[in-house]
Amino acid sequence: MTSSFPKSIDTLYGSSELLVNRLREILGGKFDIRVFPAGEIVPGLQALDAVQQGTVEMCHSCSYFYVGKDKTFAFGTAVPFGLNARQMDAWIIGGGGQELLDEFYSAYNVYSFLGGNTGVQMGGWYRKQINTLEDIKGLKIRIAGIGGEILSRMGAIPQQIAGSDIYPSLEKGTIDAAEWVAPYDDEKLGFYKVAPHYYSPGFWEPGPVVHFYVNKAEWDKLPKEYQAAFRAASREAHIQMTAMYDHKNPQALARLLAQA
Prior knowledge:
Radius of gyration: 18 Å
Number of strands: 9
Distance between the termini: 39 Å
Largest sheet: 5 strands, mixed
Order of helices and strands: EHHEHHHEEEHEHEHEEHH
Number of helices: 10
């Protein structure tokens, strides 16, 4: 499995580790998946391509990283002013969303499985204050998904940059602003050191889902009990991510505010 996230982002990356550890426990070590952080096999924003092409059997990624292929990819993770985390679960698990996603992803040779949700994200870090719409014009901002298109229509210049590359881009002034996830991750990545203005919430990501994507041919080879164990373990990983962010973010925000 290749991840779209670096190891340092322990809550996002940790969902992959939880999945593989649980599968080893359930099946007595007979089902072993190795996880590689972003960049070790392929760049983080090319994870799905690697699964589609069979370079790796699976990945952990966000569908909206791939809206350049088809804007429909946004629906798997988040659309601006869309569903929150509970509503995304309701749609995907209970409301027929998984079947729609399966139909769409079949054209890309993958199956998708819920693999986490960060909860509503922040509005990002900015090197200068944003007071009016005029301040958005010409702003070079790291942002993923359809939110980038909205900001582009407002006059910003959206950039899609992998998580590990955001800090140096902000520090050098290559970009003027960046949104990533929420206080816990943002604190770990040190954005407050180079962009002092923090805004909330991010209207573009009310409840973004992360997925495990598995190559269709490789999934179909698995014994039924391995598939069942995978579904159970991936669902546990999905639930844990939201719980951990809900626990960690308020504490991190308090620390960030104390430094303001």
